[in-house]
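Below is a filled-in request sheet from our internal design queue. Each sheet records the structural input a requester submitted and the sequence that came back. We keep these sheets so that new team members can see what a complete request looks like end to end.

REQUESTER: design group, bay 2
PRIORITY: normal
MODE: inverse folding
CHAIN LENGTH: 286
BACKBONE (tokenized):
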């Protein structure tokens, strides 16, 4: 089995050339070609023989192979139909892998998981295309699917924004969106040299551990507040909120800030997630 592993550039090129495959820039295809990185991703995702895994964008199956060796079952979702013959070849030794062809943003993931994962909790592991990273993560989180964790390779700058702290330029609505549903942690940084073709920027692998209990607040108000607060980063919080078009007027917002002991002169980037959670409780009508 080891001689089939897709770690070396020459092995990858040989398989792709034999099938006449050409990378699609439009699909953001950058295949992993480093065995150490692949093993570290699977190890960091804590995959065991008891686990069902959902992989998004298997490419030619490099990461899928490692997952298959460690997991009970892997369900891989691939948008590029041209990869059918390649994945049929590279994943042929593994009877615990099933590939579903389609756009992950359009597929009924809950139905797929229930049908193919016996209704069990699932761990997501993926090397995500840069151009759809945020929409995919948004779908995985917002649909509240039966996930234990989401371990994904993303653009380094996006990972930095997910784990950013207040008072930094990276801190923003993405930070507070991801933090509401998950506990994010960067597992490792990944240089651009371990991909084929080589992208222009480095990546990071981030692990999002799904919160067992979500923050106790009005969810709609929370996300409206977050979007409004960061719509104009240079404005004070009260000015950003009052000019965003929320239903609450400036006086209502001012009184709510007082009740939760938040100065109206602060900016959105100065507040912790808990501050937004408390403020959303005070402003359910947004």
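RETURNED SEQUENCE:
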């Amino acid at each position: 089995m080891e001689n089939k592993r897709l770690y070396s550039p020459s092995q990858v090129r040989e398989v792709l050339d034999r099938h006449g495959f050409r990378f699609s820039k439009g699909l953001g295809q950058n295949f992993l070609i480093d065995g150490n990185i692949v093993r570290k991703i699977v190890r960091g995702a804590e995959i065991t023989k008891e686990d069902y895994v959902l992989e998004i964008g298997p490419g030619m199956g490099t990461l899928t192979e490692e997952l298959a060796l460690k997991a009970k079952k892997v369900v891989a979702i691939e948008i590029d139909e041209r990869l059918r013959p390649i994945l049929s070849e590279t994943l042929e030794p593994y009877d615990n892998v099933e590939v579903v062809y389609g756009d992950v943003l359009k597929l009924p993931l809950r139905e797929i998981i229930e049908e193919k994962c016996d209704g069990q909790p699932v761990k997501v592991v993926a090397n995500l295309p840069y151009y759809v990273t945020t929409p995919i993560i948004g779908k995985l989180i917002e649909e509240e699917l039966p996930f234990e964790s989401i371990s994904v390779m993303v653009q380094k700058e996006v990972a930095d924004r997910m784990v950013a702290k207040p008072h930094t330029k990276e801190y923003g609505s993405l930070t507070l969106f991801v933090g509401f549903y998950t506990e994010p942690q960067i597992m490792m940084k990944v240089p651009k040299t371990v991909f084929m073709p080589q992208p222009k920027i480095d990546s990071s692998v981030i692990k999002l551990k799904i919160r067992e209990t979500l923050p106790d607040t009005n969810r709609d108000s929370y996300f409206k507040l977050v979007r409004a607060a960061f719509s104009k980063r240079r404005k004070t919080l009260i000015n950003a909120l009052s000019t965003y078009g929320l239903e609450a007027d400036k006086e209502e917002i001012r009184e709510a800030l007082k009740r939760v002991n938040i100065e109206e002169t602060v900016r959105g980037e100065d507040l912790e997630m808990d501050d937004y959670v408390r403020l959303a409780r005070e402003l359910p009508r947004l």
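SHEET NOTES:
- The radius of gyration is 21 Å.
- The domain at 219-282 is CATH 1.10.8.100 (Helicase, Ruva Protein; domain 3).
FILED BY: M.R.
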